[in-house]
Design goal:
Elements: H1 8-11, H2 26-34, H3 39-51, E1 54-56, H4 65-73, E2 83-87, H5 93-101, E3 106-109, H6 113-135, E4 142-143, H7 149-157, E5 162-163, E6 168-169
Parallel strand pairs: 1-2, 2-3, 4-6
Antiparallel strand pairs: 5-6
Length: 170
């Protein structure tokens, strides 16, 4: 998940900083995203656009030249990947054409953005928890320290120090 707008001062350096609270110009966004100081996020955005499903939250994708630049540089995007934007009504045809310029191929209509964000975040957190437990069966194993000499020697020499059924390290 990337937050590209709002707290950019902490994430990047940009041209012509003239005050503490600023709104980036289009050239400043492009400079920030392509700056040597930001190569990690730039590469991650390129890879994300090329390989992953994307959900644009709170982003109009109108006049977003920084994101357009990233998309143009990652033209090798997977054709079966979803590029999703939220709207509260069907966009006019001109806006739909602009969305296609960002490779948006799905529009989700919501009645209330705030309710959607809350529900989406809760569902995402539940999904992460469920999948984490499925993938990592042994989360936070217990550690039991054996102090008896015989038990310690046995563990060091030939015994299995992890009991997967009990989720315990000895």
């Amino acid at each position: 998940m990337y937050k590209l707008h709002g707290d950019a001062e902490y994430e990047s350096k940009y041209i012509d900083k003239i005050q503490d609270n600023i709104v980036f110009s289009q050239s400043q966004y492009l400079q920030a995203i392509t700056s040597e100081d930001n190569t990690d996020i730039y590469k991650a955005l390129l890879a994300g656009y090329a390989q992953k499903h994307l959900l644009f939250l709170g982003c109009s994708l109108q006049e977003e030249r920084d994101l357009q630049f990233v998309y143009d540089k990652s033209k090798s995007s997977q054709k079966d990947a979803y590029r999703i934007v939220l709207r509260n009504k069907i966009p006019p045809s001109q806006e739909q054409r602009n969305l296609k310029k960002h490779d948006v191929n799905e529009i989700i209509l919501v009645e209330n953005y705030e309710n959607f964000y809350t529900d989406f975040l809760l569902a995402y957190q539940e999904y992460q928890t469920e999948n984490k437990e499925k993938i990592y069966k042994h989360i936070n194993p217990e550690i039991i320290i054996k102090t008896e000499k015989k038990e310690s020697l046995e563990l060091v020499s030939n015994a299995n120090i992890f009991n997967s059924e009990a989720n315990v390290f000895f």
